[in-house]
C-alpha cells in the first residue's frame, strides 16, 4: 500500500513521564513536510543517552517523548525540497545534524500523536518507533548493501568512541593509551586506539568481566581500580612511566587527567552528563596537558557516518562484536534494564523487516 503523503499508524515506545517505564503505544506519524524525510526504522539500539533523559536528566518539558537515536532504516517518503534522498535509500538518522550551510536546529520537534496528545521528538530522531520523521540534515545515506541491524550502532556509540581516539585525541603510532569505562563507547575507543597504532592500550573498569571483550577490540592491559589501594592515576603512571595519550569517559575525569604526562598528555571527555561535575587546578594544565571534549567523536554527521559504514563494509572496523542481545521493540524495557545493570554492550531491537 502506498503510504506517501498519508499519516502512518505504527508502534512506538513512548516515555510518558520521567523515571517511568516506556510503554508500547500505537502512534500516528505525520507525512514529511518541507526538507523532511520519513523513515521506516529497521533496527534501533539502546544507548545510555536515552536512559540519561529518562532517569537522570528528567527534563519535565521533554515528555511525553519517543526516545532513541542509534538506528538504521529505509526511506519511506520525502517532503518537498528534499534532494539527497529517494524512497528505498538505506539511511542512518543523525542526532548531530550536518546541513553544511547553517546552524544546528532545535532538538525538540513534534511529528507524532497518540491518544490525542502530541509527542516530542528526541534528538531530532526518535528511533524507538517503526517510523520516524527527520530533517534531511539529520540523515545520512549509507552503502546499499549494509546490514541495517548491524550498522545502526554507527549512529552513535561506535563513532563517538572510535573518533574520540582517532579524531579528537589524535592518538599517535607507538603511543600508550588508557580507556576509562568499557561500555560500547569505551570499547570503540579501544578500537580507535588500535587503529591509530597505539602500542599499549590499558582498559580500566571496575567490572573485570568486561576485560575479555576489551581484548577483542585491542586492549593489551587491564586494570580494576578496586584491586589497588592507591589512586588509579598513580597505578597508571607507574605502568607507563607517564608517557601516553588518554581517551576516557566521564566517570574517571580527574584520575584520567592526572594519569597523563604533564608535558604533552591528552585527556578526552566522552560521556555526556549535566549531573556530575569535575574540576582542575591551573597547575594541572600549565605544563602542557591538553583537556578536550569530544562530541560524536569529532565526526561530521553525514560524512562521518557514511565513511564509518564504508569502513565496516571494507572490514576495517568491527561492529558485530558490539552486539550482545537481539530483541524486538516490544522488549524495550528488557533492553533498558540490561543497559542500566551493565549486562549488555548493545541490545539491537528489530522494528521492521529489512
Automatic annotation (TrEMBL):
Keywords: Metal-binding, Oxidoreductase, Zinc. Its cofactor is Zn(2+). SUPFAM superfamilies: GroES-like (SSF50129), NAD(P)-binding Rossmann-fold domains (SSF51735). It comes from the Eukaryota. PROSITE patterns: ADH_ZINC. It comes from Neogobius melanostomus (round goby). This is Enoyl reductase (ER) domain-containing protein. Residues 34-142 form the Alcohol dehydrogenase-like N-terminal domain. Belongs to the zinc-containing alcohol dehydrogenase family. One of its GO terms (cellular component) is cytosol. Residues 184-302 form the Alcohol dehydrogenase-like C-terminal domain. The keyword Glycosyltransferase does not apply. Transmembrane segments: none annotated. GO terms for molecular function: S-(hydroxymethyl)glutathione dehydrogenase [NAD(P)+] activity; zinc ion binding. Pfam families: ADH_N, ADH_zinc_N. InterPro entries: ADH-like_C, ADH-like_N, ADH_Zn_CS, GroES-like_sf, NAD(P)-bd_dom_sf. GO terms for biological process: formaldehyde catabolic process.
Amino acid at each position: 500500500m502506498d503510504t506517501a503523503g498519508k499519516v502512518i499508524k505504527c508502534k512506538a515506545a513512548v516515555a510518558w513521564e520521567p523515571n517511568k517505564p516506556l510503554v508500547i503505544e500505537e502512534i500516528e506519524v505525520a507525512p514529511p513536510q518541507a526538507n523532511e524525510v520519513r523513515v521506516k526504522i529497521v533496527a534501533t539500539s539502546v544507548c545510555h543517552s536515552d536512559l540519561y533523559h529518562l532517569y537522570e536528566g528528567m527534563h519535565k518539558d521533554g515528555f511525553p517523548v519517543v526516545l532513541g537515536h542509534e538506528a538504521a532504516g529505509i526511506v519511506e517518503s520525502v517532503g518537498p525540497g528534499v534532494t539527497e534522498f529517494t524512497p528505498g535509500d538505506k539511511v542512518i538518522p543523525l542526532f548531530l545534524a550536518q546541513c553544511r550551510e547553517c546552524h544546528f536546529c532545535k532538538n525538540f520537534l513534534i511529528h507524532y500523536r497518540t491518544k490525542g496528545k502530541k509527542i516530542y521528538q528526541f534528538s531530532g530522531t526518535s528511533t524507538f518507533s517503526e517510523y520516524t520523521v527527520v530533517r534531511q540534515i539529520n540523515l545520512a545515506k549509507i552503502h546499499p548493501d549494509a546490514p541495517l541491524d548491524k550498522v545502526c550502532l554507527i549512529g552513535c556509540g561506535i563513532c563517538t568512541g572510535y573518533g574520540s581516539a582517532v579524531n579528537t585525541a589524535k592518538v599517535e603510532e607507538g603511543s600508550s593509551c588508557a580507556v576509562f569505562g568499557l561500555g560500547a563507547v569505551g570499547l570503540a575507543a579501544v578500537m580507535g586506539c588500535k587503529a591509530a597504532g597505539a602500542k599499549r592500550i590499558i582498559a580500566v573498569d571496575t567490572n573485570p568481566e568486561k576485560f575479555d571483550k576489551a581484548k577483542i577490540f585491542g586492549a593489551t592491559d587491564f586494570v580494576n581500580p578496586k584491586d589497588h589501594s592507591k589512586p588509579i592515576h598513580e597505578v597508571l603512571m607507574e605502568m607507563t612511566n607517564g608517557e601516553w595519550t588518554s581517551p576516557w569517559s566521564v566517570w574517571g575525569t580527574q584520575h584520567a587527567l592526572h594519569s597523563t604526562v604533564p608535558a604533552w598528555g591528552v585527556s578526552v571527555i566522552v560521556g555526556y552528563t549535566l549531573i556530575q561535575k569535575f574540576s582542575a587546578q591551573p597547575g594541572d594544565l600549565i605544563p602542557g596537558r591538553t583537556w578536550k571534549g569530544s562530541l560524536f567523536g569529532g565526526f561530521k554527521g553525514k560524512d562521518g557516518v557514511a565513511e564509518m559504514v564504508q569502513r565496516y563494509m571494507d572490514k576495517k572496523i568491527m561492529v558485530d562484536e558490539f552486539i550482545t542481545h537481539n530483541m524486538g521493540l516490544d522488549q524495550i524495557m528488557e533492553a533498558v534494564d540490561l543497559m542500566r545493570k551493565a549486562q549488555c554492550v548493545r541490545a539491537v531491537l528489530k522494528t521492521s523487516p529489512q
